[in-house]
Amino acid sequence: MDIGWDAAAVPLVSRGLIALAVLLLLSACGAPQAQRAEADADRPPLRVALDGDLITLDPHLHSETIAHTVLGNIYDALVDFDDAIRVVPVLAERWDNPDDLTWRFHLRPDVTFHDGRRLSARDVVYSLQRASAHPRSKVAPALVQIERVRALDARVVEVRTRTPYPILLNKLVLVRILPHPDADADVDVDPAADVVFDAPIGTGPYRFDRLEPGRWIDLVRSDDPWRAPAHEPRVRFLFLADPAARIAALERGEADLIANLPSDQVETVNRDPALAVAARSSLFVTYLDLNPAHPPLDDVRVRRAISLAIDRAALVREQLHGQGQPLGQMVSPDVFGHVAEIASPARDAAAARSLLAEAGHPDGLDLEIETRLGRPVAPLPAQLAEAGIRVQVERRPWSEMYQRITQRRVTAYLGGFGCTSGDASDLFDHKVHTPDPARGYGVANISGHGVPALDALIEAANGRLDMVARRAVLRRATERLHEEAHLVPLFMPYDLYGLRADLIWTPRPDGRIVLAEARRAP
User: Fold this and answer.
1) What is the 3-state secondary structure (H, E, C) of 27-56?
2) Lowest model confidence (mean pLDDT) among 84-88, 301-305, 319-323, 452-456
3) Strand 495-500 versus strand 365-372 pairing type
4) Helix (H) or strand (E) run with residue 152 in it
5) What is the pLDDT of residues 467-513, one digit of tens each?
6) Contact present, 134 and 190 (Cβ < 8 Å)
7) 22-31: long-range contacts (C-beta < 8 A, 24 or more apart)?
8) CA 457 from centre of chain
9) 236: which strand partners?
10) pTM score
C-alpha cells in the first residue's frame, strides 16, 4: 500500500500521529480481509465431478482432458484463450515481432509462483525447452516450429521459429509455465532430463492442496494481487468414471458441477428445479483408431469396410439422443482447417461386406475395440455386426486405458480427440504425423502409422504464413488422411454438463472448466 508521503519531510512532533493514523488505516484494510478469510473457512468447496482419473500432476506429460482441466486451474501459460477462443495475454503482458521469425514476449512484472518465487524469463525459457525436449512430453507438437528460445533479460523472452508461424500464440496456450527446478540462477538444468513434476507449483488462480489418488484433488484460491481473485475459495475435483455416480452426486448435492452428462439424462436433470443443464458445441471428435500394424487392420479395405458399416446419423440419434453432429472428418466445424464440403459418409453395409470379402474375409471377422469406462458404445457393435464385423468391447479404467494407448498396445480404440488450439494442426502434428520424437511430431499417434506424403503436407502447412494457402494445404492433408482410413471419425458430441441451479458458470468451446469464472449465486 502506497500512503503517499515522505517521512523525512514530516516534523517529528507529527510523526507519531501519522503513524497512529497509518496503523488505523491498515487495521481497517485488514478487517475485511480477515472477515473474508473467516467466511471462506465456513464455505464448502465447489465440487466438480470429472469422468475419469487424474493420470499425472505434470502439465507437460499429458494430452488428455482431465489433466488439462485440473492443471489448467493451477498453471498459467504465456497466453490463453478467453471464452470466445480469442488469444489474450496472461503471463506475457504483451508481445511484438521484430521480423517474421521472431517473437518477443514481455512478462508481467508482479507474478509469483505459489511458493513465493517471482516469475522470470528463466522459468519461461526452461518450461518451453522442457515441453519440447522432455522424452515423454505430450505437448511437444505445439512447439515443432520453434528453433530457439532465450532470455533477453529477466522479463523478456525471445522465441525464434524455423519458418513464419502465424499460429504460434494458439500453440503456446497449451504450454504451461513451471518454475525453474533450481532457484540458483547460476545452476543449469537439462530441460530434456526425464524428471516428473509431481508437486504442482504454478501461478494459476488456484494452488494445489491435497490429493487422494483415484478419488479427489483439492485446490485453494491463490489470491494473487496481479489478477482478479477467483470467486470460490476452495475447489474439489471428484474422479467419478461411472455416469450414474456423477448424476447421483449432483442430485444429492455432493457435486455442484458434473462433466460429460449422459445425453439420455438431459431431460431428467432439466426436470429437477434444483438442477440445470449446460450445453455447447465442441472442439472434440469421437472416432475409431484402427491400428494398421495389427492384422486384419493392416489392409486398407478392411478399414474402409468398417467406416462404411457405420451409420453416424443413427449413432447421434440413438447414442447421443440428438446431442451431437455426424462427421466425416477428424476436425470439428469450429476448428480452422475444417473442410465444409466433406460430409458425413452414408452407410453402405453391402459395400462393406463386399470389401471384406475382397480382402479375404467372406465370412466376416472378429474385432476387439477398447475404450474407457463410462464411454457409451451402443449401437456401434450392432451396426458393425450387420456388415459381418463381430465386435467385442473391452472397457478399462482411464488410467489403464491411457497407458495402453500411449504404449501402442491397442488394436482398435474408441476415443475422442480435440483440436484445443482451435487449429487442425493439433490433429496432424500430434496424431497423424509419423512419430518423430526428436522434432516433437506424432506423440499422440497411438498406432505409429505414418505416410511420408502426408507428413510432407503437414510440415508444409506449418510453414505457410498466408492463411488462405495454409487452409488449402490442410484440406489436401484431410483428403489424404481420409484415404488411409485408419482414423474413422464418427461424430462431434455436444459438451453436456449438469450443475446445481445456484451455480453461475458457462461452458467454453475448448471444453476446459475454468473455475475462476464459476461462482455460487448469493
Assistant:
1) HHHHHHHHHHHHHHHHCCCEEEEECCCCCC
2) 84-88
3) unpaired
4) strand 146-153
5) 999 999 999 999 999 999 999 999 999 999 999 999 999 999 888 89
6) no
7) 26/1, 29/1
8) 25
9) 47, 218
10) 0.84
Enumerate the H helices of 181-262 as residue ranges: 243-251
C-beta atoms surrounding 429 within 10 Å: 29
Q: Rounded to an integer, what is the distance from CA 97 to the centroid of its chain?
A: 27
Contact call for residues 118 and 112 (beta carbons, < 8 A): yes
Write the pLDDT tens digit of every residue in 246-262: 999 999 999 999 999 99
Q: What is the pLDDT of residues 64-81, one digit of tens each?
A: 899 999 999 999 999 999
Phi, psi of 144 (to 5 degrees): -65, -25
- Rounded CA-CA distance 329/478 in Å is 7
- Residue 466: Cβ within 10 Å count: 10
434: which residues sit within 8 A by CB, 6+ positions away? 441, 442, 445, 448, 449, 450, 451, 452, 455
Cell of 513: 472448466
SS3 for 369?
Answer: strand
Helix 452-462 to helix 467-484 angle (10° resolution) is 160
Rounded Cα distance between 266 and 366, Å, is 35
Strand 146-153 relative to strand 156-161, pairing: antiparallel
Phi/psi of residue 50, nearest 5 degrees: -100, 165
